[in-house]
Amino acid sequence: MDIRDLKLFLHLADSCHFGRTANAMHISPSTLSRQIQRLEESFGHILFMRDNRRVGLTEAGKQFKQFAQQTLLQYQQLRHSLNQQSALLTGELRLFCSVTAAYSHLPKILDNFRLENPLIEIKLTTGDAADAVNNVARQAADLAIAARPEKLPDNMLFNKLGEIPLVLIAPSLAGTIRQQVSQPQPNWQQIPFILPEHGPTRKRIELWFQRHTINNPVIYATVSGHEAIVSMVALGCGIALIPKVVVDNCPESVRNRIWQLDPISLVEPFDIGICVLKKRLNEPLIRVFWQLLPDATLRSQ
Hints:
By secondary structure, this protein is α/β, with parallel strands linked by helices. The strands form four sheets. It has a five-stranded mixed β-sheet. A three-stranded antiparallel β-sheet has the order 10-7-11. The chain folds into three domains: 1-82, Winged helix-like DNA-binding domain superfamily/Winged helix DNA-binding domain (Arc Repressor Mutant, subunit A, Orthogonal Bundle); 88-163 and 270-301, D-Maltodextrin-Binding Protein, domain 2 (3-Layer(aba) Sandwich); 166-268, Periplasmic binding protein-like II (D-Maltodextrin-Binding Protein, domain 2). It has helices at 3-15, 18-24, 29-43, 59-82, 99-104, 106-116, 132-137, 176-181, 200-211, 226-234, 244-248, 252-255, 284-291, and strands at 48-50, 55-57, 91-97, 120-126, 143-147, 156-164, 166-171, 192-196, 218-223, 240-243, 258-263, 270-277. The protein contains 13 helices and twelve strands. 42% of the residues lie in helices and 23% in strands. The radius of gyration is 22 Å and the shape is globular.
């Protein structure tokens, strides 16, 4: 086995999907399957349970994952140590954020970082913003742009970049839902909502329900990812409380199909920022990234 094999294994262990991993790692699914099989043969144990419906780690696979993470970390630390004499740092830095954050907050941060560290390779993964903190906690990402949870884990630091207000959006096209929300006093109990599966936005929506005495809301769907929620509202499926930045950065063709209601004064905005594990700030690549952030400190804000 080599470092490339370990990277393929770890990505597949997180994605549990051969197609997504093959696409992310720029190989064909058949090539990925063959390399995993060779890795299993070399290791002498089956690492993945796989059938037509799902892929998952075996018990041996879970133990091998810990080994692979530790080996890659030691490999990266060795590279960093050997590069100490070099004027410029080299290596790979893994970042996670939502698609929206990749447009709204990441460019300015990366522009400064790339100017200072042109030889560091940035590996960006996008996904549901609600998964950002967990991805850093389990070291699937080195750093992430995340909404600050109500309780930040004790082993994590958070550097605030700004605040994100929420807005209530509804379909702009004429229809039942548009009529319902246009009433002077809408009956929110009867209007279908589209909710995120989890995360800070979901908690604020639940608080909004409480303050409007909506005990049994009509839930049209629960969706992973704010961008998908906006698209479903645009298609006329329901209404949603959504971070304003998501609406501001969605495609114009989608935004034209959305009606943004009055600002939601009863729901406080949430903080957005960069999170990292405290113990990893001694790693050169992570430390130099963190130090270039505005107001970076060695404590959570």
